[in-house]
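Bumping with the actual sequence this time:
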Amino acid sequence: MLTFEQRKIAFSKLGRTIDVLLKAENSDKNVNHSEFQEVLALSKAENQWFSEENIRFALQGWSSALQLENLEEWLKTYDLQDEIPAVNVGIVMAGNIPLVGFHDFLSTLICGHHAIIRQSSNDKRLLPYLVKKLVDIAPEFQSKITFVEQRLTGFDAVIATGSNNTARYFEYYFRKVPHVIRKNRNGIAIFNGDESKQDFEKLGKDILRYFGLGCRNVSKIFVPKNYNFNSFFEGISKFETYIHHHKYANNYEYNKAVYLMSNIKFLDNGFMILKEGQDFSSPIAVVNYEIYEDDKQLENLLNKQKNNIQCTIGKHKLCNFDFGKAQHPKLTDYADGVDTIKFLKNLDLKKHYENTQF
């Protein structure tokens, strides 16, 4: 059985392997680059939202996150040196962006548990490929990872991610075991009114990376009174090539037609639509905006809507990420603010079942 230190080292080596793959360093005899290219091709073919650029971006992010110093910084406060009694953790993964469930997978294994994984059909190639590389590094992981095609069974605890609709099903189905259920959340941006063109160029990445499909993508902007969007449109103009992606273009044209036929006012730059509204989520190629009166009113509004917000982008004092940083979370930036390691470390099944009404 791998110790905590050995598990950290194994994942750090996986990060290095990913880096080698991305750099195509054929001098490394342990890396099969043709196999990697095949996995990329299959992922793109099975989900046309998974462009090679976005897959590589996601992999690069994990390569950086898995550096040993990052793992140690992340885990140093949890006192994981003593072995935790291993349990079977079911992980239901979403498929909106590449490797969106990897943090749950990493957290489960780093704590010494057994991961039972139900992948999304939209992202079923990348994680098994990385698992194969991880098992090559540390064969002991082989018995700790199980992929299932159908319904999860044999789990003691569950981490499940889905839409607000599927979350209701998850909460009922997994009600008798310890669980973390994640729902829809979105990134938001706040403008002060003194942002530069360079700020908006960075914001374009926060909005459009993964075609806006991630929970950290900015789907809503808060602006002060009488705000002029000219600088914003000028800054994001460098992303106009997104309109050449046929699925993105289809969504843009469809939403534009709907708004025109419904006499809904909107701003349009030829590849993105800005529409005033209170919703935090928005369709692909659309960003909602809302005018705020003052900082106090905005703070009250955000507090009331905190369960809809994944991250807050901008230079405003209420923001927790600068422009361009939405898709660069640290290992400590837990989805929905739920500390996954704390949940996994403190699993007390006996106490849970004693307190559960069947």
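The tokens above came from a reply further down the thread. The mean pLDDT is 93.
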